[in-house]
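re: that complex we talked abt at group meeting.

here r the seqs, copy pasted straight from the sheet so there may be weird spacing, ignore it
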Amino acid sequence: MNVEINGLVRRFGRTEAVRGVDLTVDSGVFGLLGPNGAGKTSLFRMMATVIPPTSGTLRLLGRDPGNHHDRREIRRRLGYLPQNLGYYPRFTVAEFVEYFALLKEMPPARVPAAVASAVEKVGLGDKARARLHTLSGGMLRRVGIAQAIVNNPELVLLDEPTAGLDPEQRVDFRKLMREIGETSTVVLSTHLVEDIGASCSRVAMMYNGTIAFNGTPDELVSLGEGRVGDAPLERGYSAVLAGVRA
Amino acid sequence: MTAVLDRPLATAGVIRLTVGRLLRLELRRNAMMLLVPLVIAMFWFDTYRSSMELPAIWPTRLLYVQQGRPLVDFAPFVAGAAAWTGSRDGRRGTAEQVATTPLPRWAARLSSWAALAIWALGGYVVCMGLLLGATAAQSPTGPLPWWPVLVGALGVLAFSALGFTAGVVFPSRFAVPLVAIGVLLILVLTQYPITHNATYGLLAPTNLMGSAGPQAGVFSPFLPDLSITQLVFLAGLTVFALGAMGLRERGGGALATGFAAIVTVVGLAATGYGVKLAGTAQVTANGVVISAVHAASDDSPVTTSPVCQGSAVQVCVSPVYRSYLPDLDAALQSLLTEVAGLPGAPTKVEQVVFPYHGDAVYTVSSLQGSPAVLDLGLNIGADGSTCFVTGPKSSTCSSVSDLWKNASLVKTVVLPHTAQTVLDSLVGDRTEAQQAVVDGMLTAAGVTLTDPTAQSQLPPGAPRVFNPEVQVMGPTPGSAVAVAATRFAALPQSERYAWLSKHLSALSAGQISTADVP
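got the structure back, here u go
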């Protein structure tokens, strides 16, 4: 398993954002759903080694992120796209991606090819020399994805990756996720159930700091049978929420 | 899984290469790059223009550099740009993204700082290159004081490190103006209000007291004691700031934290040592002496053969000031011809070091020894301006250095002061007869005496100009002294000389009246 989580708890003062989560994730694309305030971002930040858990165990790529040496190894194999992408406006697309490639300690000789490949994969090849402050919100999101995948990561954490992308770009992105998921573990946090349905082999739903559902998209769909909703996955999503709230 | 798993943990060599690539990237996109033209313009407007007004004598031309003026031009911009760069992750919201990368954040930040420092230092080198190059093209004389140039360079580095760390610690958009204004205030405050702190205040490169002056290294070796102390202090500050930044980084591991702690302690120790050295500073006539770093060989005067000229009495100056000799000799010979050979008259004029205090005084002179030698200190290239009182509530100012650009002004400035020194020593000024003879000889030597009544006769609001440095107050017109002085000045020079040869001792003793003056 590339992600093993047991009894994970994270508190911020008196607030318990994550309450004893158990989760395992293997290769492929894994979706994380949940309403606002469910604890998705806190769980993501722990998985991204940004913050340590308050208690419980977390193992990423077979390593303990609490150990400095292991954490460094994990980070070299990690791709992370936060919900709010920060960027340096005067950098070009290629420079920004190169910057993160270097921070991820890629062998310098391999950086130029890796940058070109990542930029091409997100469809920004013709914008490689454009300054970031000249790009649209959707393009910036793609730059964020490029910096996340530039090191060919084994664990990719993407928080709301398709926000701001137009429908055509979302289709391309899902295809890209499926490709990456063939060799790596991709964890998506999203509100868009179409992303889950189109690209995820497994999905978990968080509610109030706990895992309310963990299964395949088909299993989630089946939970929503007989309920009212626009799409099968949305019906399943609503059913799970109704269950935990009841 | 991909081949990435098989990749070994980055070695030190890979980190070096990575940091090198990061540095290249940062160099292309550094904020300081955009500010370099601005600081060059500031330097040109302030230090360069002011310096080029001064004579082409190395220590004189670099007077403002000795006083840390380039640092005042550079440091606020450099520190502000450094704070801007240091606060980048906080301002741009990239802190979380970069926190998930394995390269020690300290290493990445150091590459950002290094890029900024390279641009800042590059700008400084360009500016100093312009000043030194333009001076070199004017065939300057004298020794080139390198130490203050180095202090300025390290000052730029220190302020870049301090500004950068301030930006890292306070990642706010307000960090930039606060740091820039703070640095400007520090530099200005250390230049003036604590100028007279001759110990710890000397650590500031801008402290006027620490400047060796426009004749540094000409008559005695340039004392690098203070510069060395400032370099230790500034290097310590730089290392401390960078180390403290490393200490602040989380998740770098015990090794990185330990290394940052060592760097911080080393920086702190160097800073403290610089402070300790400054505490033992002694301001002497030759410069600042700090015994722990003082070389005994710097205590011996510079041995050079003076260049001399003159018919009645030889006028000698340091070869550094050779170009002033003809004007100086021409200005003084009229006086020297009047007194040469008289008992107690100078047999030689020798240039001595000017006791530089940054004051608007042009020349100092004194008669020494027997046979008497006139020691003449020339404030060639003094900075600032001198103000002439022109009324109860008004004054007018002119640049002291302007006086040395016009050869005829040497006569206007040096002669009156020197003539008064010589004649007061030779004749005295206690009795009316002595005053009449002195005034007559001053007139004969070409000194214009100021009419004391003219000042009071001026209509209200008219400028009143009198400066004892360049003007000599004459007798009241119509008085016995004035009549005798006019009479004595009108005599042929040979008759004046013959009368003085015969009556000088009686005149000095006060035994001659104005009626006795021919």
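couple things i noticed - Chain A has two domains: 1-77+155-165+182-246, 84-152. Chain A is about 40% helix and 25% strand.
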